[in-house]
Amino acid sequence: MGIKIDTVVIDPENNSRELILNYLAQIEDINVTQEFNDVLTAMNFITDSRPNLIIVDISQKTQMALDIIVKISNTLKNSKIIVLSYDMSPEIVIKALRAGAREFLVKPLIEADFVMAVEKLKDLILGNINDTTKCKVITTFSNKGGIGKTAIATNLAVEIANMTKERVALVDLNMQMGDVTTFLDLNPSFDTAYVINNLERIDEGFLLSTLEKYNNSSLYVLADPPDLEQAEVITSDNITTLINILRNVFSYIIIDTTASFDGKTITALDNSDLVLLITIINLPSVRNCQRCFDLFKRLGYTKDKIKIIVNRYMENEEIKVEDVEEVLGHPVYFKIPNNYFTIINSINKGLPVCEINPHSNIAKSFRELAALLSDNFTYTNNQKPQTREKAFNLLDIFKKKEEN
User: Fold this and answer.
1) By Cβ atoms counted within 10 A, which residue in 8, 242, 265, 399 is the most buried?
2) Structural domain harbouring 48
3) pTM attached to this predicted model
């Protein structure tokens, strides 16, 4: 008989609670010790019985539920918490993760998503995996410069570190014109070239002491080499080795690349779990995106690996997001609003947007993107696309260009 995962279910809705119990009954090693319709009522039982897994709906009395989750996570360090809610706003997701939730699932529950979340935490509890072996590598890329790729990489890394409290590595692989340290006002003692030249002595302690820690957060920054000569001797194999070593120490790796398809950049893309393809909505940028997709297809990347991020997005533009999706044959994953004053102020002061103006639309947007990309958040979009009358057909323009 295997080890059982003692589990407590808290959900005020009877039908929802029954559905959860049915899902759990199909998962091996799960032992539901008690069910409750109120988190306050469950508090004493949880404190006394110390269950391995707690599944709690916070849709009602949200703040009280979050306060109790904080107490539970502080008291029961080894218990894993899954939070459920109908509210998927970035503020609620972030509060839940900061309170101590390891997973955030949107209701109504999708069975496959729920089972996957439970299985992942079950493996953690049983020791089959640990936090550092489930690293996610995310690379920001565009083959066109000046569209905000580095700003997205730095702000995303800061937000994921703030949200998850897990170790995040921000790696600048723009070997010629890297700006990551400038965007965060850092003056690191070591860089990529130094780490690569010392691969034989790298361990967790070496990495954590070599990478520059950002303030008091869990974000660590690896700068680009200061000299072009140092950058030139770094090989694609070095990049692969570096990423594999970082995977063993960090939960997330955010890579900023150069705006070209050189060997080192392609190596970073190959070794990434997700590629954020950054664009803005105008004809040259969309055309460049189309070229990127052609190359990604030849490289064998799946569609799920590529996430289109529209930067500097404005409502009521002549070219619509739907036009871009039709031309590229790929959905837009996320839109970051145009807020020139805030982002320029952030860059000039060397501070992330959340420290310049945390209540701005662009700061909220970065938090939401971080939540969507976090392993702790499962999001299912059940909304149907809206139809609209087109002012003009962007696809026809691209067809005409190809014909000419």
Assistant:
1) 242
2) 5-129
3) 0.75
